[in-house]
Model the fold of this input.
Amino acid sequence: MKEITFLNRNAETWKEFERMVANPSADPDALAKLYIRINDDLSYSRTYYPCTDTTAYLNMLASRAHSIIYKNKRERNSRFVRFWTVEIPMAIYEFRKNLLISFVFFLVAVSIGALSAANDDTFVRLILGDAYVDMTLENINSGDPMAVYKSMSSTDMFAAITVNNIYVSFLCFVFGIFLSAGTFYLLFTNGIMLGAFQYFFYQHGLLGESAATIWIHGTIEISAIVIAGCAGITLGKSILFPGTYSRAASFRLATGKSIKILAGLIPFFIIAGFLESFITRLTDMPLIFKLLIIGTSLFLIIYYFVILPFFQHNKYYGKPETVN
Done:
């Protein structure tokens, strides 16, 4: 987009914002709504017109507005709190269609994995490996099918699992650079593995027991892969469909917002690692407690990545916006 087009398209919004900034009695909440828009425009301008009066002007507006908006709300609306409660949810909302695509594609892969295992006796070994299958069969025969979760010390397991979860999700995001093909590949392979894995326990009459144990940590772990898939798809689509931006500018903007989505997963990685290392191994735990943990985990994921984004968008904009 040429700079003059960018100016003409947004000038009225900037003028309105400047009038509000100059008004000492301006409502901080009303300013905050426009402040998000100004920061998006500033981010684009820094990327595409880095050394121009336009960027300098927008930077000045954003700086002045920041001091007014947060002057009397430093603790309640600190930068840290805002990042986690507003910026990440707003990024999720903007790319909610990509999240849905990632979720549906993953479910299809899970179904394919389960159906393949049901129709091919060798499929589970092909996907999970002979060593894992043989070990699990031994555990089943010994009366402790979930013994694999007790094979390491809790502390060592926590570190290894948390790092691995971050690594897998990061790959799912980064591989989006290959026009989303890499992200879809990882979603597909992980979905196939999950489907085959669960069908394996179903074959041995242990679907309920395995699900009640595995999904203690798997609820968050699998959700993280799907959400990282959303970030990766966003990255790929920014190259394929840049809209009115240049591909380079579209990619930079999408990268920044996708990283926010990935950052939102960090506390969930830690929770999932803790659950798998310290709680999943408690296989004799009453079923009600297992279901309570699974339900709480599911609620946290749905609230933060589905409900809160819609709530924050409606708070700042009042009505749904069109997503390309």
Notes: Residues 3-77 form one domain. Confidence is low (pLDDT under 50) at residues 319-324.
